[in-house]
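Anyone up for a design puzzle?
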């Protein structure tokens, strides 16, 4: 959704004044209203995608999304003077949206989101449902990427052997730190618990929010923003596609399964805890690699390459902290970062602290995300000057 919308917005603006190579729509419409083109491209991509959301998204949620889009569109258009420029902008936005939707038709994104019949592993190291009785989006790795040549590009390689010292180290780390502090004791500090909950935020929401913050401090114009957010969301979308391809290829068990069944893994240095419980219920997707970490690596890489430096300071808030501390509260908790890389590293570290991933899955994810972000910036929407 994010990628399709932002790429259409980019191409619509780019048709008015050519600043970079188009992604899909290669045309020129001078004199069109940029504001109308952006609003029209956004509305005409978002509405059909939101209306087609699959289970388990409820109809009430879909209806609310449609209303938000229409309200925002009407508010934007009412502020634009009627006339030829507005009409040309609306038509241009529709054209950009239609081209994007057409090239994504049959891209595999209609794959089953919740599969209760997906076969689980039975041997040590093999993935099985970690607490919820289904596999989430097992076919997402076959979705057509936006920038990558294939979903298997930059494959991270396999997980560690269950009897290796590196697996033992990762096992004991997440076992020590990732527990819920109720059923399972945890050695997390208060700050580490905050990190774990802070970065539960949906990755596209968080990295788009960070990008908006940095865009504001750098005073980007519409065209610069269009290219930034198109690159960012193409990379984030490809990060999920690529990571799900690896996850359902390696099908490695999650820490919650590994710790509870450690007595079967053949490693004398891992001790089972049959009641071990993570801080938050583990997502029903295999461990290797961490998609959340891929997203962080990709987001940070795009931002670093776009702004030409990693040394950018910014502050972020989160919607997944306890009530009273979120972005929408009167006094939200914020975390400050001195670089994009620092934020990506903390984002990855959070997945160990919350009990979701082994360290190897995190490190591999960040590295792959870095490659995906760099590849996206190098190959899509290059500046024309």
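Challenge accepted. My sequence:
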């Amino acid at each position: 959704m994010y990628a399709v919308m932002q790429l259409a917005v980019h191409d619509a603006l780019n048709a008015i004044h050519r600043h970079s190579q188009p992604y899909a729509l290669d045309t020129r419409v001078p004199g069109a209203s940029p504001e109308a083109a952006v609003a029209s491209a956004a509305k005409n991509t978002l509405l059909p995608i939101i209306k087609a959301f699959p289970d388990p998204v409820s109809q009430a949620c879909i209806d609310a999304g449609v209303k938000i889009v229409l309200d925002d569109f009407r508010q934007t258009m009412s502020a634009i003077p009627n006339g030829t420029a507005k009409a040309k902008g609306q038509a241009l936005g529709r054209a950009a949206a239609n081209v994007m939707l057409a090239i994504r038709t049959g891209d595999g994104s209609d794959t089953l989101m919740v599969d209760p019949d997906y076969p689980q592993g039975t041997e040590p190291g093999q993935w099985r449902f970690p607490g919820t009785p289904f596999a989430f989006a097992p076919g997402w790795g076959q979705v057509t990427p936006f920038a990558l040549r294939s979903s298997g590009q930059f494959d991270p390689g396999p997980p560690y052997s269950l009897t290796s010292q590196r697996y033992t180290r990762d096992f004991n780390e997440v076992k020590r730190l990732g527990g819920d502090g109720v059923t399972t004791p945890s050695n997390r500090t208060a700050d580490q618990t905050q990190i774990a909950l802070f970065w539960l935020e949906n990755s596209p929401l968080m990295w788009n929010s960070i990008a908006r913050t940095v865009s504001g401090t750098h005073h980007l114009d519409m065209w610069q923003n269009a290219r930034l957010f198109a690159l960012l969301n193409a990379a984030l979308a490809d990060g999920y596609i690529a990571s799900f391809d690896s996850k359902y290829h390696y099908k490695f068990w999650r820490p919650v399964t590994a710790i509870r069944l450690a007595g079967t893994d053949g490693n004398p240095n891992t001790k089972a805890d049959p009641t071990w419980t993570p801080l938050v219920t583990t997502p029903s997707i295999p461990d290797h690699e961490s998609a959340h970490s891929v997203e962080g690596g990709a987001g940070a890489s795009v931002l670093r390459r776009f702004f030409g430096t990693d040394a950018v300071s910014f502050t972020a808030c989160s919607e997944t902290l306890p009530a009273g501390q979120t972005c929408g509260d009167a006094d939200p908790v914020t975390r400050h970062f001195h670089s994009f890389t620092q934020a990506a590293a903390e984002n990855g570290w959070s997945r160990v602290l919350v009990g979701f991933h082994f360290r190897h899955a995190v490190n591999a994810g960040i590295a792959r995300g870095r490659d995906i972000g760099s590849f996206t910036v190098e190959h899509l929407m290059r500046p024309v000057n």
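A detail worth pointing out: The longest strand covers residues 314-316.
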